[in-house]
From TrEMBL:
Pathway: Secondary metabolite biosynthesis. Pfam families: MBOAT_2. The keyword Membrane applies. Keywords: Membrane, Transferase, Transmembrane, Transmembrane helix. One of its GO terms (molecular function) is O-acyltransferase activity. It is found in: Membrane. One of its GO terms (cellular component) is membrane. It comes from Mycena venus. This is MBOAT-2 domain-containing protein. Residues 257-335 form the Wax synthase domain. It is a multi-pass membrane protein. The chain crosses the membrane at residues 30-51, 63-80, 302-322, 328-346, 358-376. InterPro entries: Wax_synthase, Wax_synthase_dom.
Length: 410
């Protein structure tokens, strides 16, 4: 067949122009990405988001440039979400034990997407609160990786926990951080090990083989508490690790790394728990994309529910990163947290008093633990409890188990 006839034959097999065929024809195919391609995609995505932060700092005059960059940034982040597979980059077999790496990657990419929207359309130009901006490149880097926005004007109203470690000299802070890191790693490992013992077959927090409903629900409550404590320890570990990196490699000050939590177990209301004592890592996008739009429609109750809806969406998408689908109950959990906060607002309006004291503490515990299975069960069913965070040979819980077993059988 001549070249001209080959070209005609190809034209005869063209697809009708639809939205789906357009994206298939003009955008890179979405599929598994690994090796050098994954590195290139990650670097490109990071540079796009960094560039968007540079433009945001430069102010309103860069709006059209941000608007032009936004679609590409969103697409590259989306492509990373659906194509990068970190788990199989480390384990070629039984990669499911490392699926939490993909979950973390999906959460990161979704955060890049939401913050790109915030940087593009926000009417507030990001500015440092205390020290004047002197180097645009360093400011943009800080804006890119400063998850809570500590020291920036858009987080000026955020309650930052008081320092619990000595900030000077830096060596003292690093030593204290090292101790905290070791304590939370050990605590996480024992909690994780206990969770594995309770759920050896990945059946979730509800074990239908337990006939006694009291014991079955008691097990569910214990497993819910374990999941919550594991999340607390894991976030604490990440904060400690990144603070050491920021201080030792990037020359940051310990004051730029205030505590990530403020003793959440002491909260005497749901409002205090979520607005002050729990971590505020995703606060800026929850407010900008959830609270502010819905507050225009339904006032404060709408704003509260909007913020928790945004939070639920983030965790809903993150659960999908575990490779076993996702679960709408995760969104229900956060909406129920919003309902609880709204009820506290009504209580204050009708009584003139805030929820607080020991009764507020009991109320908060009952609401959190009572709704907790909506979050804990999907997480356990995703296989998170059977992930490998530490090799068995270095797990403190395994050491202790072997020691106890040898003593009992001696």
């Amino acid at each position: 067949m001549s070249p001209s006839l080959q070209q005609i034959d190809v034209l005869n097999h063209r697809l009708p122009l639809t939205l789906a065929s357009f994206f298939r024809g003009f955008l890179p195919p979405v599929g598994p990405v690994s090796g050098c391609a994954s590195i290139r995609l990650t670097i490109l995505k990071a540079l796009l988001y960094y560039g968007l932060n540079v433009l945001a700092i430069l102010g309103p005059r860069t709006f059209l440039y941000r608007l032009a960059l936004l679609p590409l940034t969103l697409f590259m982040a989306y492509r990373a979400m659906v194509s990068l597979d970190f788990a199989r980059g480390f384990l070629s077999t039984d990669a499911g034990r490392l699926e939490y790496l993909n979950q973390a990657m999906v959460l990161t990419m979704f955060t890049v997407m939401t913050r790109s929207l915030v940087r593009t359309f926000s009417s507030q130009t990001p500015q440092r609160c205390r020290e004047p901006s002197q180097q645009l490149a360093l400011d943009a880097a800080d804006l890119t990786f400063n998850l809570r926005g500590v020291g920036w004007n858009f987080s000026a109203s955020m309650r930052v926990p008081a320092p619990t470690r000595s900030l000077a000299p830096t060596s003292a802070y690093l030593v204290a951080t090292g101790k905290s890191l070791a304590i939370h790693i050990v605590a996480f490992d024992f909690l994780h090990y206990f969770g594995q013992l309770l759920d050896p077959q990945t059946v979730g927090i509800y074990d239908t083989t337990i006939s006694d409903p009291l014991l079955r629900n008691l097990r569910a409550i214990v497993q819910t508490l374990i999941v919550g404590l594991c999340i607390y320890c894991a976030i604490h570990i990440g904060h400690d690790v990144f603070s050491v990196i920021g201080i030792t490699l990037l020359g940051q000050s310990p004051s730029q790394w205030p505590p990530i939590f403020d003793a959440p177990w002491l909260a005497t209301s749901l409002t205090e728990f979520w607005a002050a004592r729990w971590h505020q890592i995703f606060r800026q996008e929850f407010l900008a994309l959830g609270a502010k739009p819905l507050s225009l429609v339904a006032g404060r109750p709408g704003g509260v529910l909007g913020a928790f809806l945004a939070s639920g969406t983030l965790h809903f998408v993150g659960l999908w990163g575990m490779g076993k689908g996702t679960d709408i109950r995760v969104i229900y959990f956060f909406l129920m947290m919003g309902v609880g906060v709204v009820l506290e607002g009504f209580w204050r309006r009708f009584t003139g008093r805030r929820v607080g004291g020991w009764m507020g503490w009991v109320w908060s515990c009952v609401w959190l633990v009572g709704c907790g299975p909506l979050m804990a069960d999907p997480w356990c069913l995703s296989g998170i409890m059977h992930s490998v965070f530490l090799p068995p040979i270095v797990r403190p819980s395994v050491w202790l188990h072997k020691l106890a077993t040898s003593i009992l059988h001696s």
